[in-house]
Amino acid sequence: MEPSKSSIQSLVSEIKKEVFSNDNLHEFVSSSAYDTAWLAMIPDDPRKQNCPMFENCLNWILKNQNQDGFWGETNDEGLPTIDTLPATLACMVALQTWNVGQENIDKGLAFVYSKAEILLKINYQKLPRWFVIVFPAMIALAQDSCLELVFPQGSKGVLDDIFFKRQQILKTEELVDESQYCDLPLLAYIESLPSTYNVQQNEIVKHLSNDGSLFQSPSATACAFMATGNLKCRRYLMSLVQNCPNGGVPAKYPMDEELIKLGMVDRVQRLGLAEHFNEEIEKILAKIYRDQKNHKAKPGKTNTLLPIKLYKDSLTFRLLRMQGYEVNPGNMCWFLNDAEILKHMEENFEQFIIVMYSVYTATDLLFPGEYELEKAREFAKRMLERSIKRNKDHNFVLSKRFQNVIKHELKFPWIARLDHLDHRKWIEEYNVTPLWIGKTSFYRLSCLDNKNLMQLAVENYEFRQLIYRNELEELKRWSMKWGLSDMGFGREKTTYLYFAIAASNSLPLEPIVRLIGAKAGIIITVADDFYDMEGSLSELEVLTDAVKRWDGKGLQGHGKTIFNVLDDLVKDITSKCHTKERSGIEEKIRDIWRETFVSWMVEKTWSHSGYIPSVNEYLQTAMISIAAHTLVLPASCFLNPCIPIEKLKPAEYENITKLLMAITRLLNDTRSYQKEKADGKMNLVLLHLNENPEAHIDESIAYVEENVGMKRKEFLKHVLMDGFDVMPKPCKNIHLSCLKAFQMFFNSSNLFDSKTALADDIKKAIYLPIDRTPKHFLKPLPSPVPAKKKDNITKISASFDGALRNQGSTNVIKQQTNFGKISIKRPEKVHIPVRFHFCFI
Predict the structure, then answer these.
(1) What are its GO biological-process terms (predicted)?
(2) What average pLDDT score do residues 50-70 get?
(3) 525 vs 359, 447, 493, 547, 565, CA distance in Å?
(4) Of 379, 398, 286, which Cα lies nearest the Cα of 332?
(5) Torsion of CA 519, 523, 525, 529, to 10 degrees
(6) Which of 547, 587, 609, 655 has the lowest tally of Cβ within 10 angstroms?
């Protein structure tokens, strides 16, 4: 069934209620099975221990086991994430504690046996430190709870290594390191510390936050409460559960509400839905901007962990700048001035991949003179390229989908991507939301995976496709009516041009804006080819003179066809404009076309005579002959608010229009110099080479590309910021769309002149519906191994934590298991950094 406007409006209304009108933002954070399990273990009365304090948490565990037997998240390939191992163990312990859910426990044990080995091995190169600390402790806790854990013999080596790494961490790190800002301290893992630490109550209370939490960790606070009975801890836990009515609690509480809202805005925009939530987006960003201005805190180190802070700062910068707010690059580039931070990020780059992706995308919006942003972009690009290489060599840290996200971002810059196709990628291929690795588990914003939101994204995209198909058919009929699709020479680009105009802008433009732009593009292409390859010099002089006089008398053949369709287009534009503006607009639009045809005639004369103009002389003509302004200015008459009439006059073009004309010309020149050299035409690359005979062609291309880069920064400043032009925002946006279309055509090669290069993109943009097929790669869970076939398995027969507890002050403890001995030194001082990074699921 085709999507309808009424269905879309209904979904928009529901999402506004579900997502944007919900004051309890903590409901949007996905539940952590691990933390929920720890709250479920708390007895209502420590003396009797006959029922849980938070029965809702226990019920959540009973109801939220995955069908394959685990608790926790799955990644984009359908596989359980590494956090499912400690989470599943903790949930089984919680059920065992209250003697409920035996069927759930059996499924959990089967999962551990059947999947633990492969999960440990595929994550072996990237096991986070929190896992190394917590997983052995959960094994110990499960054994103490009389759960019979069985691991395949093949997991022996990895388990050995995990136990050894835990030993190394425990003996070398401080319990709390006040100078540490990159990672959580070991005390945040209090529930996983061996009893030999004998952490004193006053040490726990000393580090409680004002809200009563221990490092805002529900699991650590639950353990702290059971150890101390502290009332502040109790109040924190009660508040947490009250704000999570379904019983599942997040991995961190309270969450940064600004970060949640920024995530909501980012998600809505990436899915192509911003047009439906403009008021909500503006309200959120305006408040964040005010708070940022009023806060007046110096950028740099804070109590927030480094990856979270840098992610938030870069996301804030990008969203605010894109919305037109004046933001200081220093708000996100502060990390460049701290050698210690840079060293840490280089050495632990896998923790910062999503952060670097966010930094890199923020630097798409560079303005002139922002050298800090340029350095940040270079640093982020280097880190992302390193992660791709490391993942290729070692199957290291990236999911397949996020590999594709990064590769696509590095290969196709934002300025060269069409909005409509970008939205499709995020709906279909990159249907991912940022997952934070908290203390011991993944958590994500559930509002970003809202089913109605995804349904709206699909319907909205396919509704646009329906509109685009109808408009393209109308355009083809128009082109055939005037004979433009069968001129017998040149390039037939009706579909290409409509595709580029429609797909480059996600704004809710009126159909007439797209159709006028596309019709102008078709006429430009046909006329340009007529001047370049078909018309004789005398024919072209006659046509140029007719356009200057705006009188087609005496024209014949192709020249007559071109003038007649042009005259009809200008009349059509004039007739559809507001009555009071018609008389002034018609002549000004004619003037735009006049100067365009004159520029083609000048270039033809140069080519015919062999004249070589100076660079300045060439650019004055060539930035007109590229005809980008001829596309956007007449179409801008139908925007709301529309372009001021005086800005249609060639002598009164705004700087943003002049920059568009210059950039599009230079882009074209970098990819067409070989063809134009063969045709005897001039080109800036060839002119530079002519003026610098000792230079290589690559140097001339680099010279032009450098000019493109400088002018593009200036252009973006004019598009995004107020005060540089009197042009309304919609007119600025259509300038940006035009540049993105040109950048797409000429980013790395000349796609415009290719007959097949854009065929797949055109199908995706206009014809092919969204692929809604779920992509799951998880094989069915095998049945638990029969008892008679347990010869090739490893059974944990002694509790790791219990061994530490029973040995008192012994420095070296030997733990006997069926897979060998593990030596554990009791540390004097301990500290554990947590791998608190972002990844895409």
Answers:
(1) diterpenoid biosynthetic process
(2) 96
(3) 39, 46, 8, 16, 13
(4) 379
(5) 170
(6) 609
CB 369 within 8 A of CB 359: no
- Is the pLDDT reported for residue 474 higher than 80? yes
Cα–Cα distance, 48 to 812 (Å, whole number): 37
Cα 839 to the center of its chain, rounded Å: 11
Structure tokens at 52: 């849980």
- What is d(CA 540, CA 242) in angstroms, rounded to the nearest whole number? 79
pLDDT given at position 445? 64
Say what the pLDDT of residue 809 is. 27
Q: Stretch 21-34: mean pLDDT, rounded?
A: 81
Is a pLDDT exceeding 70 seen at residue 438? no
pLDDT digit string, tens, across residues 662-699: 999 999 999 998 888 888 888 999 999 989 988 999 99
| Long-range contacts of the stretch 640-648 (C-beta < 8 A, 24+) | 640/730, 641/728, 641/730, 642/728, 642/731, 643/727, 643/728, 643/731, 644/726, 644/727, 645/581, 645/584, 645/585, 645/588, 647/726, 647/727, 648/585, 648/588, 648/589, 648/591, 648/592
- Token pair for 100: 């409920």
3-state DSSP call for residue 750?
coil
Say yes or no to pLDDT of 793 above 80: no
Distance CA 826, CA 167 (A): 8
* Interior/surface letters 387-411, b for 16+ CB within 10 angstroms, e for the rest: bbebbeeeeebbbebbbbbbeebee
In angstroms, the CA 78 to CA 778 distance is 5
Report the candidate in 190, 189, 193, 230 with the shortest Cα–Cα distance to residue 212: 230
pLDDT at 815 over 50: no
Q: What average pLDDT does the structure give for the chain?
A: 85
* Average pLDDT estimate for 56-82: 90
Q: Characterize the bridge pairing of strands 442-444 and 150-152.
A: unpaired
Provide the pLDDT for residue 829: 29
H or E stretch including 820? strand 820-825
Q: Are 95 and 86 in contact (CB under 8 A)?
A: no
pLDDT at 336 over 90: yes
pLDDT band at 81 (very low <50, low <70, confident <90, very high): confident
Q: Is 525 helix (H, G, I), strand (E, B) or coil?
A: helix
Please check whether residue 16 is in contact with residue 201, taking contact to mean a CB–CB distance below 8 angstroms. no
Contact 730, 651 (CB under 8 A): no
* Strand blocks (E) in 542-586: none
**Exposed (0-12), middle (13-18) or buried (19+): which is 740, by Cβ within 10 Å?**
buried
Beta carbons of 826 and 811 less than 8 angstroms apart: yes
Distances (CA, A) of 616 to 208, 619, 841: 68, 5, 52
Backbone angles phi, psi at 312, to 5 degrees: -65, -45
Closest CA to 743 of 630, 662, 663, 636: 663
Return the closest-CA partner of residue 569 out of 519, 631, 510, 643. Answer: 519
Say which residue, 716 or 830, is predicted with more confidence: 716
821 class by beta-carbon count within 10 Å (0-12 exposed, 13-18 middle, 19+ buried): exposed
Is 133 a residue whose pLDDT tops 90?
A: yes
Exposure letters 705-739 (e unless 16+ CB within 10 A, then b): eebbeebbbbbbbbbbeeeebebeebbbbbbbbbb
Q: State the pTM of this model.
A: 0.87
The Cα 517–Cα 509 span in angstroms is 12
